[in-house]
Every structure is written in structure tokens, then in C-alpha cells.
Amino acid sequence: MLTQDKLLDMYYRMVLIRAFEDRVHELFTQGKIPGFVHLYAGEEAVAVGVISHLRRGDYITSTHRGHGHCIAMGVDVKGMMAELYGKKTGTCRGKGGSMHIADFEVGMLGANGIVGAGGPLAVGAALAAKYKGGGGVVVCFAGDGAQNQGAVLESLNAAAIWKLPIVFVVEDNQYAISLRSLSSTKLQPRVSTARSVAERAVAFGIPSVTVDGMDVLAVYEAAKAAVERGRAGEGPSLLDCKTYRYYGHFEGDPMVYRSVEEIDEWRKKDPIKLFEEKLLKSGIATQAILSDLRRKAALEVDEAVKFAEGSPYPEPSEAYTDVFTDPYY
Amino acid sequence: MSGVREITFVEALNEALLQEMERDPTVIVMGEDVGVYGGIFGVTKGLLDRFGPDRVVDTPISETAFIGAGVGAAAAGLRPVVELMFVDFFGVCMDQIYNQAAKMRYMFGGKIKIPLTVRTTIGGGVSAAAQHSQVLYSIFAHVPGLKVIVPSTPYDAKGLLISAIRDDNPKMFFEHKLLYGVKGPVPKEPYTIPFGTADVKVEGSDVTVVAVAYMVHEAVKAANELKMNGISVEVIDPRTIVPFDKDAVFKSVKKTGRLVVVDEDYERCGFASWVAALVADECFAYLDAPIKRVTTPTVPIPFSPVLEKEILPNAEKIIKAVKEVVK
After folding, report:
1. What is the DSSP string of A111-173?
2. How far is CA A143 from the centre of its chain?
3. What are phi and psi of B267, to 5 degrees?
4. Interface touch A119/B105, C-beta < 8 Å
5. Based on the structure, what is the number of domains in chain A?
6. CB A77 within 8 A of CB A248
7. Residue B200: exposure state from Cβ atoms within 10 A (0-12, 13-18, ≥19)
8. Which of B165, B218, B133 is nearest to B18 (CA)?
9. pLDDT above 70 (res B156)
10. Is A121 among the domain residues?
11. Which residues of chain B neighbour A131 with C-beta distances below 8 Å?
């Protein structure tokens, strides 16, 4: 049974992700953030529902759409925002940017600019966890598009044969950039033959379940069984979470492949609104408590922007450091 | 050092792995056929019996998964030594090497380390044809974030592999197929060789010859023959390409005024060209002749021994190049 504190903490993480992403969208539009940015808004229930089970010593591997995973793992939001600005005070001292935020201290092994590349990394982290003992688990987040990468398929196989403590979380946000994950159109083929990725997992002998990725409690329940299975040394699991990204594949995406109506339809199923309704209905929270948490999140993001804008850029000489542990490059 | 005896290159590597695994429980070995089989060239022989399947992991033929697993395990606190059976197979797993392992420390602001060693075999001369004969170390030296190690003797193989395992960065460790059976003196106890320290194999005063891996042996052979013709050749083995001991090469060229670089990698945009450029930048005023490169022409490695011999560098070609620069 989830305690009130835990539920409100989950809610806070979700609204913090949303506030962060909405703000980044604005800042990018204003030209304040350079580079490539992929936003997680709409998918909050997946990151929070799964990561709420993790403890110190667990790891996650992430994707190009990694801000939500970072925030759910507890990566400092100020550092993240400064990183997006390319500032010296960023999580990665301005050397990584949106696609490469990592914080090993909290078990976040890195967002990743290469689709599917987190799979093998998760296999290795899980091998290490298994070797060290102690019941550590690794969560491998990857989108529906990534499921057609050889790296992911090889990783599913390796995790299964070695009975590794991995939870593969498929964030099926309906689109592999512009191609639909499961339905074809006159102009575009679908990207997968299986009806769902959950079905594919069966071929690897990996227990899998399809989950409503807009419902944080449904994700939480499904992840509970998967994480427990991993901690008990029983091997990997796969959660196929059906969700939706509100913004484009990247900021600046003209989104010619989908309609405004479609986005509006999904927004009606908004994961934060859905969770709010449940919290109110069950008496766990009042409107006042929830709006306080939303205000607190907005404030935290305000502070992060202030921090990022007030921070210095790295010295140009820093371009030459950190290639190796020694000064040579 | 005590306990020096003659062992082969492959035995020296095996001993390095064994001793490091005994010293440090975070060292694990992974790769195709490294366990029961003992490695396709025998480098990991006996390790499975000694350390068990948790530390000597036989993997599926899934280079992306197991090289990437090496990266992930290194990120999570282990010190993996992963075998890529032939460097030619890098094409099926390069993302995990050059985009993941090599760049993580930098991308993540210098806060983490990836102590991963990828061991792989290189080199022609055994009619293994176009997909099993390349050296390709230039490709790995070309991208940032990988240390590139190219031993030429059993002594260097053991010391450099131990240094590699203890080093906190991603490393590519290249083992030339023609060297596995070569014997040489190797101390029994563990020892390290610092990266970036060249070894002067032959001292000389007329021409500097820089060579790595198996080509060191061809260069020494050439130097010995040239000596009989009254040409004094200095042979330098950098032993690591990244980091590279520029000073040793510059010092030698300033003395001899002539440079021949021997490199089994493809001629185009390769290691030899880079060394030539460094020397042209730094030692131009000391040069008495154009720099010569003895390399493999940029064609796929052919199968027929006649064709393969035609393209691979060897002592004869080195002698010819040296004679041209002393003319």
C-alpha cells in the first residue's frame, strides 16, 4: 500500500518534470537553449511509476528523451537547467547538454544520443550488480523506435541467458520520430511486425506486460513485480508502456506526421490530471495540497532558470580536459 | 627483476590476466569463446577453471551487447577486459566503443571513469583475407577518448596489459596474430609499463624508423641488414599510439635527420601519415630528406599469399625506403 507521502512525492516528481519540460520548450523557442532538445512531457507516469521503486545502488540507462528520467532519479534540477544552457555549473559542466546528462551518484548512467545504445550498458551494469550481490536492479528505458535496434535485441537475449536483474521499460510514445510504431499509413509502413513489443519479449523468454503508460499507478504496480523479480535473481522483465509525447520528436519538429486533434485526444488522458483525480477521489490529497505542489515545482524551475542564466560559461580551455583521467588528449 | 624466463606473447598475456584477476576481484573477462575454449588464440586459457563463470563470461556472438556490457559494467564499478575476436568485427559494435565508452567521461563532465580494456587481434600475413586481416588501430586513435596500445614483444605485452587493466580509461589493446607465438624474456612477477614511453629497439645515427606491433620485428630485421651495408638505423617502438611519445621520435629525428614510418594500417589518413605530420611540424629544419612511409596500400587485404605479400609492409620494403632517404 502506497503511503500518502509516497503518493504525493510521486505527484511532485511528475509535476516537476512537466514544469521543467514546459519551461524548456519556452526557453528553446526564445532561443535561450542551443542544440537538440527532446522533451518528455506527456510521458511522466512512466519514469515516475518505475523509478519510484528504485533505491541506492540501483541504476538506470536512459535515452535522448532523458530529462524525465533524470528528475525522477533525483538529479539536481538546477544543474540540469545549467547543463541545457551549456554553463560551467551544469550537471556535466556544460560538456554534455540535453542528450548526455548523467549522474552516477544517483545511479543515472546517462541520457544517450544513440537510439537503443542504453541496452548493452544496462546489461553491463546488471552484470556488475549481480556480481556484487545485494539485489541491485537496473532499469533500461528505451522508446518504441529503439526496439528495432540490434543493440536492444542483443541485450534482451543477453539479459535472458544470464538471468540479469533488468527491467526493460518500453516507452511506446506512438512514434519512432515520424513513423508510427504499430500502424501503417498509405505513405509510411509501421516500424514493427509484432503487435506489441511485449509480444516480442516472449520470444526471448522474458515475462512482459502491456501497461497504460498514462496511469502512474498502473505503471507502479507493473514495475513492482518486475523490480521484485530482478531483486530476487529471477531475471529480466519487460514493461511495454503505452504513452504519448506532447511536443515534437525534437524542439523545432514541424510534426507533419500527426494532427493537432490527435494531440488533443491524448492530452485528455493526461497522466497528471488522471493522477490528480485519483488522489482527490481517494481523499489522499486536497486541491489545495496539489496546487501547492504545482506552485512549488514552478518555483523550483524558476530557481533553476535563474541559476542557469546567472552561471558562467566554461573557460574555453576546458574543451581540452576530461577526455582521459590524465591530462593527455 | 627476478624469475625472468622465455615465454611466448600469448603466455605473457595469459599471465597478465591471471595475475590481475588474482590481485583485483573487480577484474572480469568477457567475450566469445573466452571460457571453455580459452579464447580463439588461447589468451584466456585456464581462467575459467581458476575464476569461474561469474568472472570469465562466455558470451553470445553479440559484440554490441557484450562490448556494451563491458562499458556498463565499468560504469558500475567493475574493471572488465573484453575480447573482440578480430578487430575487423568492430563494425558490428563500434557505437559502444567510440560513442559510449570513449566519450562518457568527457560528456559527463569528467566526473566518472570507464576502466574498460578491449583486447583484439590484428594483422595480416596469414591469408585470413579482407575481413580478418586488418590492423585498423588508426581508426581508434582517430577518435577521442580511447588509449591505443600496440605491444610488439612478450615483455611489453604483459607489462602493457597490466598497465591497461589498472588504467581508469577505455583502452584498445591490439595483439598482432603473428606475434602470439613469438618468445621473449618475461619476468614472472607482475610489472607495469607506463603508456607513452617509446622503446628504442636499435640505436643508430643515419635514419629513424618508427614502427609498431609486428612491424617492429620487420624494422629490426631491416636495420640489421642495413648495418651490413654501412647504414645505421635507429628503430623506435612507441608501444602506445595514444598516448604517443612524440619526444622520443623528435629527439631521434633531430639526431638522424631522416624518418621512415612503418605502419601495417592502410596508407590513407593513417598512423604513419600522422607521425609524418608531427615530425614535419616540429622537426622540419632538422630533416635532410623527405619523410617516407611504408604502409599497406588502401585496398582490401587479398587472400592469395602472392597478393597479400605484394601489399603488406616487410623488411625488404623498409630497406628500400631507408635506402631512398639516405641517397
Report:
1. --SSTTTHHHHHHHHHHHHHHH-S---EEEEEETGGGGSHHHHHHHHHHHHTT--EEEEEEE-
2. 9
3. -65, -40
4. no
5. 1
6. no
7. middle
8. B165
9. yes
10. yes
11. 28, 54-55, 73, 78
Q: How many residues does chain A have?
A: 329
User: Distance (Å) from the C-alpha of residue B97 to the closest C-alpha of chain A?
Assistant: 11
DSSP one-letter code for B117: E
Taking each helix axis from N to C end, the angle separating A4-29 and A271-281, rounded to the nearest 10 degrees, works out to 150
Check if the beta carbon of residue B21 is closer than 8 Å to that of residue B47.
Answer: yes
Contact A219, A241 (CB under 8 A): yes
Stretch B304-323: mean pLDDT: 97
Domain contains A317: no
Q: Which of B19, B32, B38, B26 is nearest to B73 (CA)?
A: B26
Domains and CATH numbers, chain B: 4-187 (3.40.50.970), 199-326 (3.40.50.920)
Q: Are B260 and B294 in contact (CB under 8 A)?
A: yes
CATH number at residue A83: 3.40.50.970
- Contact at CB, A124 and B74, closer than 8 angstroms: yes
Distance of alpha carbon B78 from alpha carbon B24, whole angstroms: 10
In this complex, is the C-beta atom of A163 within 8 Å of any C-beta atom belonging to chain B? no
Q: How far is it, in rounded angstroms, from Cα A285 to Cα A278?
A: 9
Task: Quick: pLDDT tens for A217-266.
Answer: 999 999 999 999 999 999 999 999 999 999 999 999 999 999 999 999 99
